[in-house]
From TrEMBL:
<dbReference type="GO" id="GO:0009690">
    <property type="term" value="P:cytokinin metabolic process"/>
</dbReference>
<dbReference type="InterPro" id="IPR036318">
    <property type="entry name" value="FAD-bd_PCMH-like_sf"/>
</dbReference>
<dbReference type="Pfam" id="PF01565">
    <property type="entry name" value="FAD_binding_4"/>
</dbReference>
<protein>
    <submittedName>
        <fullName>Oxygen-dependent FAD-linked oxidoreductase</fullName>
    </submittedName>
</protein>
<dbReference type="InterPro" id="IPR016166">
    <property type="entry name" value="FAD-bd_PCMH"/>
</dbReference>
<feature type="domain" description="FAD-binding PCMH-type">
    <location>
        <begin position="1"/>
        <end position="140"/>
    </location>
</feature>
<dbReference type="InterPro" id="IPR006094">
    <property type="entry name" value="Oxid_FAD_bind_N"/>
</dbReference>
<dbReference type="InterPro" id="IPR016164">
    <property type="entry name" value="FAD-linked_Oxase-like_C"/>
</dbReference>
<dbReference type="InterPro" id="IPR016169">
    <property type="entry name" value="FAD-bd_PCMH_sub2"/>
</dbReference>
<keyword id="KW-0560">Oxidoreductase</keyword>
<dbReference type="GO" id="GO:0071949">
    <property type="term" value="F:FAD binding"/>
</dbReference>
<keyword id="KW-0285">Flavoprotein</keyword>
<dbReference type="InterPro" id="IPR016170">
    <property type="entry name" value="Cytok_DH_C_sf"/>
</dbReference>
<dbReference type="GO" id="GO:0019139">
    <property type="term" value="F:cytokinin dehydrogenase activity"/>
</dbReference>
<dbReference type="InterPro" id="IPR050432">
    <property type="entry name" value="FAD-linked_Oxidoreductases_BP"/>
</dbReference>
<comment type="similarity">
    <text>Belongs to the oxygen-dependent FAD-linked oxidoreductase family.</text>
</comment>
<dbReference type="Pfam" id="PF09265">
    <property type="entry name" value="Cytokin-bind"/>
</dbReference>
Length: 348
């Protein structure tokens, strides 16, 4: 089983009675070209982004946490705040170099050995080991304006997210919720638009027709915005929460059922279900832009990512309870036509 940074959510990068191959040494990044870059499977996305931004280019989709390996996210999909426009990271791969189960080194793409290409992308490492990947690049801006919009209720936030996905006015769209010290939910939508100096965005136009209660607006460099989890990681490591169990659940919900599912689920959650450093993540995307065959999405034009990013104590009873809760939510989502992201390939 190939493994680089080891951030799988349920031990998928382990191999019971098998062999785990450390991929971190395959981290080379070739010369950046005008439309693509060739990188080793063990390269971290932060390294790729630094290399491409120096040429005014960026991958179209990046996950929130950039210290994941290229091979790791390409083995599961790779979703982020720009997925409403550009799909998954796996949808933006031009070519792969792979070692197959038969120990053959092969090169594949959508037009060359396409069956192997489609089997490996999102294939959880079960159909071959990614050695190198040719990634598509697009022009990058130098600055980012980030908008944090706060809502009193969840439903208006979800409705605004759907509006923004349809009209496409923002480059980046996400939403999250966490518990305040008061025990109440704090609902926030995080939006961003990228720009160059002298082309500052029109805040009034971008925020028109949205129903938020308050807003925080700030400017930063593009890399700083895309790598903003660096500070979160440092904080979580300092508190010890980074090393605690994280029984996460990542669902893709059909648009027609998403609001009821999300609102009802969150209504029942208490702080102990998420943890003091836990977070709930949610945002919509067009399913038509996700073309990776191995990544299953709901059979509707629009779907929602809904993630319970739980942090649990080192307590087997608590972890087992949260895992069982995840199992129940998973079954309910599947019954509504949803799918599960970041799950074992064997799961139905």
């Amino acid at each position: 089983m190939p493994r680089a940074q080891g951030h799988s959510s349920g031990g998928q990068a382990q191999a019971k009675n098998g062999i785990v191959v450390d991929m971190r040494g395959l981290n080379g990044i070739d010369a950046v070209q005008s439309e693509h870059v060739v990188v080793g499977a063990g390269a971290r996305w932060s390294e790729v982004l630094r290399a491409t931004l120096s040429h005014g280019l960026t991958p179209p989709v990046l996950t929130d946490y950039l210290e994941l390996s290229v091979g790791g996210t390409l083995s599961v999909g790779g979703i982020g705040g720009t997925s409403h426009r550009s799909g998954l990271q796996t949808d933006n791969v031009a070519e792969l170099e792979i070692v197959t189960e038969e120990d053959e080194l092969r090169t594949c793409s959508r037009t060359r050995d396409s069956d192997l290409f489609d089997a490996v992308l999102g294939g959880r490492g079960r159909h071959g080991t990614i050695i190198r990947a040719t990634l598509r690049l697009i022009p990058a801006k130098t600055c980012t304006r980030r908008y944090k919009l706060y809502y009193r209720e969840l439903s208006p936030l979800l409705a605004d997210q759907c509006l923004l996905v349809e009209d496409g006015r923002f480059d980046h769209i996400e939403g999250h919720a966490r518990f305040a010290d008061s025990g109440e939910w704090i609902y926030a939508m995080v939006l961003a638009t990228h720009f160059d100096p002298g082309e500052e965005p029109d805040d009034a136009a971008l925020l028109g027709r949205l129903g938020h209660e308050s807003a925080e607006i700030d400017d930063m460099g593009c890399f700083d915005f895309l790598n903003q989890m660096e500070d979160d990681e440092a904080y979580l490591r300092s508190t010890g929460a980074w090393e605690q169990p994280h029984p996460w659940l990542d669902l893709m919900l059909p648009g027609s059922a998403a609001e009821d599912f999300i609102v009802e689920t969150m209504r029942k959650l208490v702080l102990d279900d998420i943890g003091e450093s836990g977070l709930v993540l949610f945002y919509p995307f067009h399913t038509r832009v996700i073309t990776t065959p191995r990544v299953r999405v709901p059979a509707e034009p629009r779907a929602f990512l809904f993630s319970l990013l739980r942090t649990a104590p080192h307590d087997e009873v608590v972890v087992s309870r949260l895992v069982e809760s995840n199992r129940e939510l998973r079954q309910r989502a599947l019954s509504l036509g949803g799918t599960v992201y970041l799950e074992h390939a064997e799961s139905p």
